[in-house]
Amino acid sequence: MAESTRRRNRRGDSPDAPTARRARSGAATAGDDAFRRGFASLTQLALSGVQITACVIDVKTDRLLFSVDDHLSVPTASIGKVLLLIEIAARLSAGDKSAHGILNRTAQDSVADSGLWQHLQVPALPVGDVAALVGAASDNLATNVLIRRVGLDAVRARGEALGLTRTFLLDTVRDYRGPDDAPQLSVGSARELATLFAGLSRGEVVNVATSQQVMEWLALGSDLSMVASAFGLDPLAHRTSDHGLLLTNKTGTDVGVRSEAGVLRGPSGSVAYAVTMRFNDTDLTGRLAVLEGMRTLGTDILEYVF
């Protein structure tokens, strides 16, 4: 979720307006018209100046179903927290002592916006509970405590070991980003993120235990406001199948950024997807149009798996 808006863009007080990008491989690469509505909706957004990166793949066959500039590395807000969870889960599955014990929050970890821990009285939690807060509420304070525990270098090395070259967790969560800080919390490419979620769903990321643990944490996620808004699931309780649908996702929100990656399983198949929208967030109408475009693509995804 969002970092605080009390930040300064490196090139001024407001973000540059993104420009529309030409789609790769004709944008929609499905062999049928399964994603025609999503393609039409995203095309209209691109023509209005929204930068779109998107990728949808069939989990079973790895077939590319839909693609818009999926090679570009763009700001993804809190999506990069998935890489942190992978590092924590890998250490837990390996029996690493650094992944166990009680973690104390400190004043240096404190940050505003998304999360629950900042509103709780308890000053310390087990590592697994801190990770669960990140999965459930994209908890910024919990994220910073976990980063302090394992270090950004370890998270970066883990991503490189997984073959990620355009997807990174760059920094801790900050209320304010100055000129000496990383300009974004995380960046990523839609293709890498969709592929990563497909791997998690198949138990291929590090090992089965690591993949399952990350998926369990992310299944607690309560943000179904973007692509997943089309799936009709209970935002607060969708860890089990509902009408044959099972969702695991992670979202990212920042000023002028809406991003989501996940896996949706259904009666007729499973897809992994990643979508990021960058837009000039100067009025509510533009933001709502972006969210509606993401929902439209979600409707196409739902029909494909259902």
Please give a structural write-up:
- By secondary structure, the chain is an alpha+beta fold.
- It has a single domain, classed as 3-Layer(aba) Sandwich (Beta-lactamase).
- The chain is built from 8 helices and 10 strands.
- A hairpin with a 5-residue loop joins strand 1 (51-58) and strand 2.
- Helix 2 (81-93) runs antiparallel to helix 3, helix 2 packs across helix 5 (152-161) and helix 3 (127-137) packs across helix 7.
- It is globular and about 50 Å long.
- The model is unreliable at 4-31 (pLDDT under 50).
- Residues 1-14 have a biased composition (Basic and acidic residues).
What layout of secondary structure does this protein have?
Layout: H1 36-47, E1 51-58, E2 64-68, E3 74-75, H2 81-93, E4 102-104, E5 124-126, H3 127-137, H4 140-150, H5 152-161, E6 168-169, E7 186-188, H6 190-201, H7 208-218, E8 246-254, E9 257-266, E10 269-278, H8 284-305
Antiparallel strand pairs: 1-2, 1-10, 3-7, 4-5, 6-7, 8-9, 9-10
Pfam family, one: Beta-lactamase2
GO molecular function: beta-lactamase activity
Protein name: Beta-lactamase class A
Can you tell me the residue ranges where pLDDT is under 50 for at least 5 consecutive residues?
A: 4-31
Task: Please count the beta strands (DSSP E, at least 2 residues each).
Answer: 10
**What count of domains describes the coordinates?**
1
Q: Within the CATH hierarchy, at the fold level, what is the topology? A: Beta-lactamase
SSE order, as H and E?
HEEEHEEHHHEEHHEEEH
State the CATH superfamily name. Answer: DD-peptidase/beta-lactamase superfamily
Number of DSSP helices?
8
**Top-tier CATH class:** Alpha Beta
- Quaternary: single chain
Biggest sheet strand line-up: 2-1-10-9-8
Q: What can be said about the biggest beta sheet? A: 5 strands, antiparallel
Query: Which overall shape is indicated by the principal axes computed on the Cα atoms?
Result: globular
Average pLDDT taken over every residue: 90
Sheet/helix structural class:
alpha+beta
End-to-end distance, in Å?
29 Å
